[in-house]
Design goal:
alpha/beta, seven-stranded mixed sheet, two-stranded antiparallel sheet, about 25% strand
Length: about 200
């Protein structure tokens, strides 16, 4: 159903109905969800925090080429488009997530490019809720090399794991709809690093 996360009234997203999300699932349903989790049906806490930061500080993206890496529902990329980004690319390996991103972009009258594989150069790249899998930290090198600035947000990453990054903000959050995840996944940190990748122009 079409919803707006509470702190993001500027945005509308097609997300799972809270009544459906919070009901009791059968073992077969749980198995199916685990095999192919539809991560794009929720607005994740770090993505919500980044989108709010972008909308509160539009100068972060205004006139820039923006990458939303691991875009899920497209929340961050759409926020960047609304805030005045020159161009927005949303990247996700899940074709269903890209389909959802396209639908959400249309819903918000925003234009974004969709890609499965990371390519191109950007002025600023965002990666929110991507590093729950520690193996994904290896992706930082590629992101640093394709953008002049990188901002990552996650509930799991500690400052010691991303040396060279500064903490922009710390806040608390949850999925929306709230699926009552453990409190350890409710503290969001937003990190920033200036790199030597893309050149604005």
């Amino acid at each position: 159903v079409i919803q707006s996360p509470p702190e993001l009234p500027e945005l509308s997203l097609i997300l799972v109905d809270p009544a459906v999300a919070n009901r009791r699932w059968s073992p077969t349903e749980q198995q199916n969800l685990s095999a192919a989790p539809p991560l794009w049906v929720m607005a994740w806490p770090s993505g919500r925090a980044v989108a709010r930061h972008i909308l509160d500080h539009p100068e972060t993206v205004r006139g820039k080429r923006v990458l939303d890496f691991g875009c899920g529902s497209g929340l961050v990329g759409i926020a960047a488009a609304i805030a005045g980004a020159r161009a927005v690319t949303c990247c996700d390996r899940d074709p269903a997530a890209l389909f959802a991103t396209r639908a959400n972009a249309v819903l918000n009258d925003s234009e974004v490019d969709l890609v499965v594989e990371l390519s191109g150069r950007f002025d600023i790249a965002f990666a929110a809720d991507v590093f729950y899998d520690r193996n994904n930290l290896d992706l930082l090198y590629g992101l640093e090399n394709c953008s002049s600035q990188l901002m990552i947000a996650d509930c799991s990453v500690n400052p010691s794991e991303v040396q060279g990054y500064s903490v922009v903000l710390e806040t608390s959050g949850a999925t929306y709809p709230d699926l009552d995840r453990s409190n350890q996944f409710r503290r969001v940190r937003l990190f920033k690093r200036d790199t030597t990748g893309a050149v604005a122009g």
